[in-house]
Write a structure and sequence with these properties.
single chain; 358 residues; alpha+beta; 7-stranded antiparallel β-sheet; 5 helices; 29% helix; Tripartite motif containing 35-40
Length: 358
């Protein structure tokens, strides 16, 4: 009894050598008590293998059709099989031509898209190039202006050098004066008056209306008639001379940068100085302990010698022959020249004069 009545579809080979459609033999075995060959009754394997050679025999015809349902290439014989019964078919060539036009349209759209992208990139490149070109132009103009300014400065320096060379060649002797310390107006108490230099300070003892807004300056001494030097020192040796001849109430020395500048009843702490008041010469340390110096006449000029490396501050006469007092202290913060006066005669910082052959 044969179980296949049509063209073999996915034929399988049993152990006995007979071949059947896979679906046909599986259906036959479903109603049989054992997995026997429908032809010779020999017991077969549980899973028979495909008979590829036999399957190819039934598909030697050219596959000229496309199954629209299964989207497969089939030959005319396959189109009549049970698997594809009542399906719709189209010729292969017709489907190929149709997809050919679709592919051509897709290709054209892709080309157009790439063309737009290239145009966009070209536009961005031109915009960036123009921006860089403008930036380059602006920088070149700025450099040109700076070069012109530098050239003018060079010319001015050249002229100055030529003038100095003329003086050098003339063999003249020039007296050069250097003031080692200048006063800082921002720290001066409102009762004090500073010279234009500013190298002199005095106390006119006049009642003045104080500008409260200006007095709020944190650098300014609010209650004590003091003023500091403009430059502070952290290292090295420094010397300055102060003319005190006519002044009757004064103090000179140094103050630390953190010296109290407001809310003081007397001399602020943080000061090392020598002073004269009431015909008495005395020195004062940061603890405000004033020590009289007996046996010294009132000086006309006080020389201040500050050696921060050695931790030494001394006061002497102009030639250094008479040393009034020496403090030894390791200064851990910046110190500034300090000046105090209640007298209408000035304290004046003397310039250092020396002759130099030109």
């Amino acid at each position: 009894v044969c179980c296949c009545h049509d063209v073999f579809d996915r034929p399988v080979a049993l152990l006995c050598g007979h071949s059947f459609c896979r679906d046909c033999v599986e259906q036959y075995w479903s109603v049989s008590d054992s997995r026997q060959c429908p032809m010779c009754r020999q017991i077969s394997a549980n899973t028979p293998s495909l008979n590829l050679a036999l399957g190819n025999v039934f598909h030697q015809k050219k596959r000229t059709l496309v199954c629209c349902v299964d989207e497969q290439l089939v030959c005319e014989i396959c189109g009549q099989s049970e698997e594809h019964r009542n399906h719709t078919y189209r010729p292969v060539q017709e489907v190929v031509e149709e997809h050919k036009y679709d592919a051509a349209d897709l290709e054209n759209r892709i080309k157009a898209g790439f063309k737009d992208i290239h145009q966009l990139l070209d536009d961005e490149e031109k915009a960036m190039f123009n921006e860089l070109k403008l930036e380059k132009k602006e920088k070149l103009e700025s450099l040109k202006i700076k070069n012109e300014m530098i050239s003018e400065e060079i010319q001015m320096l050249t002229n100055t050098i030529k003038d100095l060379e003329k003086e050098l060649n003339s063999g003249d002797i020039r007296i050069i004066q250097v003031t080692p310390v200048v006063l800082d107006p921002n720290t001066a108490n409102f009762h004090l008056t500073l010279s234009v230099d500013p190298t002199s300070v005095w106390n006119p003892n006049k009642s003045e209306v104080i500008n409260e807004q200006s007095n709020n300056n944190i650098e300014r001494f609010a209650d004590c008639p003091c003023v500091l030097g403009y430059v502070g020192y952290s290292t090295g040796k420094h010397t300055w001379d102060v003319d005190v001849e006519e002044n009757t109430s004064w103090m000179v020395g140094v103050a630390v940068e953190s010296v109290q500048r407001k809310g003081t009843n007397g001399l602020p702490s943080g000061i090392w100085c020598i002073g004269h008041d009431g015909e008495v010469l005395s020195v004062t340390d940061p603890l405000e302990s004033r020590v009289p110096l007996h046996g010294f006449a009132k000086p006309t000029v006080v020389r201040v010698n500050l050696d921060l490396s050695a931790g030494r501050l001394s006061f002497s006469d102009l030639l250094g022959e008479t040393v009034y007092h020496t403090f030894t202290h390791n200064f851990t913060e910046k110190v500034f020249p300090f000046f105090y006066t209640k007298c209408h005669f000035p304290l004046t910082i003397l310039p250092k004069s020396f002759n130099k052959e030109i």
